[in-house]
Specification:
Helix content is about 55%, strand content about 15%. With about 600 residues, the protein is α+β, with helices and mostly antiparallel strands. It is found in: Membrane.
């Protein structure tokens, strides 16, 4: 009854989340229908250095043409932002570009702008740092660099201190739009280097003319498939799907070999153990028994700091449920996978709704350990993950504000997230705790009785059986199963690639959970065999060690693969990677513990224990 209740709650919440996303998606699936010469709105978004994707600034922070004059009469300049756009770092604003559906524009003057020496230096610095811009039309992203450097490989200071390279500002944009049955199905921007303006000398103010052209072409691409073209955007290198599937096949082979190896070991070892403990005479058992059976009276002894332990298991289960639901929604097309903000918004909302699961799991386990202060366990569960997230976010947001970057979330968005936590996350966690108190099983159903005095743990153990070695093995083997796919995930998270292989990711994550759980069980058996009954925290740590290995890999990626630099970028990167790896630690740790608990109950339930 208790399990059914919790599953029904989770199913209802998942269904409501699916329906909400499906209804929202249905409204936009058809797209806007245009007639010839209808106005098409082009939206500007952000500018920033190519190698530091997190470092973003408003498009109009650079001296580009604006339409402030028009909007002072018509209304606000800023485009209405949704939660997913704010979380993704978007700051969309209207632009002075005029486009008519299906109508080509060969050459049109956008504006003539007088640039001061300060403006020239600002643009020159932006070109030197490889700044690019992002525009939108019908939610289709368009990218382009604001300029280029001629003879970039030879840029150096001569005797007079002047740059030998030539800094070119792209002043002409060529828009290419694809249409199909009155809908916009593709969009791209091309810069014209032949019309670029030399701004190397910033000591003399200049008047620069900004221009653009528009070309429309009929395409066979359907509107619902238009985002597939953006899996490899203008800055991405083409990817082969075979690499992803070969990675999954490699992981599957590793899983099969690992599980076969473990199955053989367990069949032989456990078979011999069961034969010893069940078939032979009682007096012979007393003479020969050793290993894991000797600690039958201690193996179900409560771990140290049970409140924190239960909170970690509950939070890890909540995060794992969130991860699987988000992957399922992305795989089913209910969430836009081409915009990071959509995934983030879905994750925040799903995590909030799954709080009832975290509260239920942690409180039930706490009661099974004969805990009394269950309200404290609920509070620790509700704060275990959000508290570190808040600290990292506060630091990163402060650094972004100090640098004047729009990577800092607006105050209104911060208030929204705080309200989600205060009025949904906390109450749902408490509700889950109440359900566990009223309907959850308060009996651990341990097959053996716990003694009053704990058995002494052997102090001398071989090096290969030490905890550091076990932790290294527990993290390294699962890490090798996801290493290849992990590279693509990192380049999508911290680069300009758009990750669309969510079917592969779903398989990879499932395999990771399986591998981690199997390895955790095997290591727990070896720990019990050396008469060490402190397996509770070991199961959590062994399972979570993959998160530590991913965190170590993040340093390698940052310094050797990414090209990222700067204090702002580093603050976001290492801060957010700390949170992500902590989440992975809790997820896999809770999964490893759950399977280990079933395993320990099984082996001690099969033997005769006093």
């Amino acid at each position: 009854m208790k399990t059914i209740t919790s599953l029904l709650i989770a199913a209802i919440l998942c269904l409501s989340s699916n329906l909400a996303n499906a209804k929202k998606l249905a409204k936009v699936k058809a797209g806007l229908d245009y007639k010839p010469n209808d106005d098409v709105q082009i939206i500007v978004n952000t500018v920033g250095p190519f190698n530091n994707p997190v470092v973003k600034y408003r498009y109009y922070s650079l001296p580009f043409c604006t339409d402030h004059d028009d909007h002072e009469k018509k209304g606000a300049l800023k485009h209405k932002q949704r939660l997913r756009e704010k979380l993704g770092g978007d700051r969309r604003e209207s632009s002075p570009y005029v486009a008519k559906f299906g109508s080509d524009e060969d050459y049109h003057t956008l504006c003539k702008k007088s640039l001061s020496t300060e403006d020239m230096q600002t643009l020159k610095d932006a070109i030197e740092n490889s700044y690019f811009f992002e525009l939108f039309v019908e939610d289709l992203p368009m990218y382009g660099f604001i300029g280029d450097i001629e003879n970039e490989d030879y840029i150096q200071k001569d005797i007079t201190g002047s740059d030998q390279g030539k800094f070119l500002l792209f002043t002409h944009l060529d828009f290419h739009f694809g249409m199909n049955k009155g809908k916009i199905v593709s969009a791209a921007i091309y810069t014209d280097k032949s019309r670029a303006v030399d701004i190397t000398d910033t000591k003399i103010p200049k008047e620069i003319e900004f221009t653009y052209s528009i070309q429309w072409t009929e395409e066979a691409l359907e509107w619902k498939h238009r985002m597939k073209n953006y899996a490899n955007n203008a800055f991405s290198q083409p990817r082969s799907t075979e690499i992803h599937w070969l990675s999954i096949i490699n992981s599957c082979v590793l899983v099969v070999l690992l599980m076969a190896f473990l199955a053989i070991i367990f069949m032989r070892v456990l078979k011999n153990d069961f034969a010893r403990y069940i078939d032979i005479e009682e007096d012979t058992i007393e003479e020969e028994e050793s290993g894991w059976k000797l600690i039958s009276g201690d193996v179900f002894r409560n771990p140290e700091n049970p409140t924190l332990f239960c909170a970690a298991i509950g939070t890890g289960t909540q995060l794992m449920a969130t991860c699987f639901i988000v992957l399922f929604l992305a795989l089913g097309g209910y969430v836009s996978t081409t915009r990071r903000g959509s995934i983030l918004a879905c994750g925040v909302i799903t995590y909030t709704l799954m709080s009832v699961i975290g509260g239920f799991i942690s409180t039930r386990l706490y009661f099974q350990m004969n805990g009394k202060a269950w309200a404290r366990a609920v509070v620790v569960t509700a704060m275990l993950f959000p508290a570190p997230v808040a600290l990292v976010f506060a630091w990163a947001n402060s650094v972004a504000m100090a640098h004047g970057s729009i990577s800092a979330l607006p105050f209104g968005t911060i208030v929204t997230i705080i309200c989600l936590y205060a009025f949904l996350c906390l109450p749902l966690t408490l509700f889950g705790g109440i359900l566990a108190k009223q309907y959850g099983s308060k009996d651990l159903e341990a097959p053996t009785r716990t003694t009053k005095v704990a058995r002494e743990i052997p102090s001398e153990i071989p090096f290969y059986a030490s905890r550091p070695v076990f932790l290294a093995v527990a993290g390294f083997l699962p890490f090798t199963a996801i290493y290849v796919e992990l590279h693509y995930i990192f380049t999508s998270m911290w680069g300009h690639h758009i990750y669309t292989m969510f079917g592969v990711l779903f398989c990879a994550f499932s395999l990771l959970v399986i591998v981690t759980s199997c390895i955790t069980v095997s290591l727990i058996y070896f720990q019990l065999s050396r008469e060490d009954h402190r397996w509770w925290w070991s199961a959590l740590l062994n399972g979570g060690m993959t998160g530590i290995f991913i965190y170590i890999y993040s340093f390698y990626f940052y310094f050797f693969n990414s090209g990222m630099s700067g204090f702002l970028q580093a603050s976001f990167y290492f801060g957010y990677m700390t949170i992500i790896c902590f989440a992975v630690f809790l997820m896999l740790g809770s999964g490893g513990f759950r399977l280990s608990l079933l395993f320990v109950k099984y082996i001690y339930g099969r033997v005769k224990c006093d």
